[in-house]
Design goal:
The structure holds 2 protein chains of 2 kinds. Chain A is mostly helical. Helix content of chain A is 51%, strand content 6%. In chain A, helix 1 packs antiparallel against helix 4 and helix 2 crosses helix 4. By secondary structure, chain B is α/β, with parallel strands linked by helices. Chain B is 39% helix and 11% strand. In chain B, the strands form 2 sheets. An 8-stranded mixed β-sheet of chain B has the order 3-2-1-4-5-6-8-9, sandwiched between helices. The two termini of chain B are 44 Å apart. Classes of the chains: A mainly alpha, B alpha/beta. The complex binds zinc ion (ZN). Chain B: This is Ubiquitin-like modifier-activating enzyme 5.
Chain lengths: 126, 438
């Protein structure tokens, strides 16, 4: 939950633009014209911020409807169920995909990757 | 234009194919039942034990065209038609014209399907993507020898034997996937894109699937009943959702019936949930009782019934729709509702909403699980009765303190969607993570 993020993550999430549209993909027009644009803008901004701090850690693109997103990161999978629902409910509609990556996948990777390397499950590619 | 016509034509064909595939499952089950009847091999275990005497009793019955009220041992409907003579139901036979969709054929859905089948429902559409497993055997309905079959195929096989009068469609489908969503909606729709079912029963075990059913039912303006059993197997609930009239599933966070452990309606990966055939059977019974009351128009349909088995406690309440629901379609349907309809929906509401909270808070009520929730005006009037609480913080109205000047942060004016997608692609492809990642 909120208390468990490190100060770096908290700083990072503050810099990602917040969203204002509450539309979902089923709202076709409002989704296309507002929410999806906002999702894209906040993602672009987040990637730019990461590049500035030399911590560029993921790629992401979507299909043209914005209903299917794919990309790459250093392994892992975001848990968006039990831990995220309360946070998302509180911050709807302001948090988007970029915030999920920042608060979910990034801390997960930071915690798990060193552990996995330590266990020999993955190796550093030189 | 021609391309559009072709696409519409393809969609039409796809729609017909998926419906026909569902009907095929029903026909296959019917055919297999007939074959077994012909060679006398129905119910093999029982007939092996008592060959001669048992065979006579076991033969699956033939199709009935109408429901007879005649009181004879051979009439499968005599006890149901008696409901009419006793003045409970005015026209029981109306059930033959009803079509019900059941989503999720697990511990609750399969039992609900059997109950409706035995009641002589006109037709059932069954949705599930899972297979029968031995781990399901602590529940009712499925049998060990059905392990490995899809739940829809196993269910149609059993149900057609119980009552050949019911038209069955089995749809092996995950409704929460992108394609599954569209197909689910297509299957529920008729040729004019209106709902072709009288009622949808939600018997799923996760939040995403409930939100999917909510969305489709809002789009089709279709009444549905939601059901759930807690992960600790000792409490559950059923809820009536009428688009624009009662709260939709997105209007307020899911409620939790107090039982010691939160349900949260959220499935946790890798954590094995407990289940009991008793609790699931009770919830299925409450659910189908509600369904019968709605379909045959008798009794009162309480909008929300909770069940706490440890205390034998049934909290009830009504759930008004949230005027600032996050689902825009819900808001639209609310405003298109004539006021008279809104007033007549909650027969049991007055009693429950006015009941005082217990001083000692035995049920661990959390009307406002987070401090912010208390300030939400949409829900202030919807105090929860004892034994119920929200599983998530209540949604903030837009422009809350979370983002006082969100508009400033987000540039809504330009560029176009295509420009932005291109920008993201460029940012992503020049990402050095790309070269590191593999
Ligand atoms: Zn709603």
């Amino acid at each position: 939950m909120a208390e468990s993020w490190d100060s770096g993550t908290k700083e990072a999430v503050k810099q990602i633009p917040l969203l204002t549209s509450i539309a979902g993909p089923r709202d076709k027009q409002e989704w296309q014209e507002k929410r999806l644009k906002q999702e894209l803008q906040s993602l672009i901004k987040y990637i730019q911020l990461n590049k500035q701090t030399d911590s560029d850690w993921f790629t992401i693109t979507s299909n043209k409807d914005g209903t299917h997103w794919s990309g790459k990161c250093w392994g892992g999978k975001i848990c968006l169920t039990v831990h995220f629902k309360p946070l998302w409910a509180k911050n709807s509609p302001h948090f988007g995909i970029a915030h999920a990556l920042c608060l979910g996948l990034a801390p997960w990777l930071a915690a798990e990757i060193p552990y996995m390397i330590g266990e020999g499950a993955i190796k550093v590619k030189s | 234009m021609e391309a559009e016509g072709a696409i519409a034509g393809i969609e039409n064909i796809e729609q017909r194919i998926s419906k026909m595939q569902g009907e095929m499952q029903g026909i296959n089950a019917r055919l297999e039942a007939a074959v077994k009847l012909a060679d006398g091999s129905a119910y093999p275990t029982a007939s092996a034990a008592k060959p001669a005497a048992a065979k006579k009793v076991q033969e699956p019955r033939t199709k009935e065209t109408a429901m007879s009220a005649e009181v004879v041992d051979s009439n499968p409907y005599s006890r149901l038609m008696a409901l009419q003579r006793m003045g409970i139901v005015s026209n029981y036979q109306a059930i033959r014209q009803k079509r019900v969709a059941i989503v999720g054929i697990g511990g609750v859905g399969s039992v609900a399907a059997e109950m409706l089948t035995r009641c002589g429902i006109g037709s059932l559409l069954l949705f599930d993507y899972d297979k029968v497993e031995l781990a399901n055997m602590n529940r009712l309905f499925f049998r060990p020898e059905q392990s490995g079959m899809t739940k829809t195929a196993a269910a149609t096989e059993t149900l057609i034997n119980i009552n050949p009068d019911v038209e069955l469609e089995g749809h092996t489908l995950n409704i929460t996937t992108l394609n599954g969503f569209d197909e689910f909606k297509r299957i529920l729709s008729d040729d004019t894109d209106k709902s072709r079912v009288d009622l949808v029963l939600s018997c799923v075990d996760n939040y995403e699937a409930r939100m999917t059913i909510n969305q489709v039912c809002l789009e089709l303006n279709q009444t549905w009943l939601e059901s759930g059993v807690s992960e600790d197997a000792v409490s559950g609930h059923i809820q009536l959702l009428q688009p624009g009239i009662t709260a939709c599933f997105a209007c307020v966070p899911p409620l939790v019936v107090a039982s010691g452990i939160d349900e949260r309606t959220l499935k946790r990966e890798g954590v094995c949930a407990a289940s009991l055939p008793t609790t699931m059977g009770i919830i299925a019974g409450l659910l189908v009782q509600h369904a019968l009351k709605l379909l045959l128009k008798f009794g009162e349909v309480t909008p929300y019934v909770g069940y706490s088995s440890l205390k034998d406690f049934f909290p009830t309440m009504s759930l008004k729709p949230n005027e600032s629901c996050s689902n825009g379609l819900c808001c639209k349907l609310q405003s298109s509702q004539p006021t008279s309809e809104l007033a007549t929906t909650n027969p049991a509401a007055d009693v429950d909403e006015s009941s005082p909270f217990h001083e000692d808070n035995e049920w661990g009520i959390e009307v406002a699980p987070e401090a912010e929730a208390a300030s939400s005006p949409a829900l202030g009037e919807q105090a929860l009765p004892e034994g119920l609480s929200y599983s998530l913080p209540v949604q903030q109205p837009a422009q809350s303190e979370v983002a006082p000047d969100a508009e400033e942060h987000m540039d809504n004016t330009e560029p176009s969607l295509e420009d932005l997608m291109q920008q993201l692609e460029t940012a992503s492809s020049s990402n050095k993570g790309d070269s590191k990642a593999h």
